[in-house]
Task: inverse folding
């Protein structure tokens, strides 16, 4: 009887240990969202220094147009041996005027995310398609052709 109980307990422990390894993995990527801090940013009251003191450095900033700081946060989940999938996504865009004062703080979610699926393994380009032999031998006689004179004022003159 005792051997049966020990075997039963061992099977239960083994089943628990094996299923524990199959649980999903949840990861936070980017800015970790704190709703209290996000709601503390007020247009007309805050400026760049106060936003950086409250939220920290932005994930990235705009390069063109009006100055905008972006705080990007994603939550992904995945089962073992599979690709991660996005569970949640949030972007806070803090817009500034030329003086550095906050004029707007907009939030957007996963509904604004665009999924791109590339077509094939090559990037299409504009222009003429060349074959292998043309790539290999195409420049023969193009540069430094015999009888060509060097430009005036160039090397060797």
Result:
């Amino acid at each position: 009887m005792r051997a049966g109980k020990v075997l039963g307990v061992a099977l239960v422990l083994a089943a628990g240990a094996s299923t524990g390894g199959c649980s999903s993995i949840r990861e936070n990527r980017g800015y970790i969202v704190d709703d209290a801090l996000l709601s503390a940013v007020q247009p007309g009251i805050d400026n760049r220094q106060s936003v950086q003191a409250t939220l920290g450095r932005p994930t990235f900033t705009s390069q063109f147009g009006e100055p905008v700081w972006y705080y990007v946060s994603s939550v992904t989940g995945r089962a073992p041996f599979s690709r991660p999938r996005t569970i949640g996504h949030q972007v806070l865009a803090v817009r500034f005027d030329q003086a550095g004062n906050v004029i707007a703080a907009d939030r957007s979610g996963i509904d604004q995310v665009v999924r791109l699926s590339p077509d094939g393994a090559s990037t299409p380009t504009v222009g003429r398609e060349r074959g292998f032999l043309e790539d290999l031998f195409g420049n023969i006689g193009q540069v430094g052709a015999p009888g060509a004179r060097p430009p005036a004022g160039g090397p060797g003159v």
